[in-house]
């Protein structure tokens, strides 16, 4: 069951747990080098894996935005609050001043914009206005 709690709070919590419990974490550390058909090596870093997880969570957030109910309004408001908190953390907390966190904040902004635009689109589809007759 999809709850009105913003799912992007999960990557935010994971990021904060990692950076505060393991100071000096290297987001550029390679965790898996993948050999490509071209012969080149594609190094997948910790930051890449974290952002891939965040994008996967964003998929479920977008799916939640297609519901029309009073809970979806609460979900949108909470998503905005999570985005604002993450933005403030990015600006004020030294551990959050990384490209990985900046991209996470961008994903949260995308969630807010997508959530509202999908909800408006679904509402327009559900409400059919007939042209005036006369």
Unreliable stretches (pLDDT < 50, length at least 5) are none
Silhouette? globular
Structure annotation, total helices: 4
- Helical percentage: 55-70%
Strand percentage, roughly?
5-15%
* Rg measurement, Å: 19 Å
Strand order of the largest sheet: 1-2
N to C succession of SSEs: HEEHHH
What is the quaternary state of this protein? single chain
Keywords: Membrane, Transmembrane, Transmembrane helix
What does the model show?
The protein is mainly alpha-helical and 134 residues long. It has one domain. Helix content is 62%, strand content 8%. It contains four helices and two strands, in the order αββααα. It has helices at residues 9-21, 46-64, 70-92, 99-126; strands spanning 30-35, 41-45. A two-stranded antiparallel sheet has the order 1-2. It is globular and about 65 Å long.
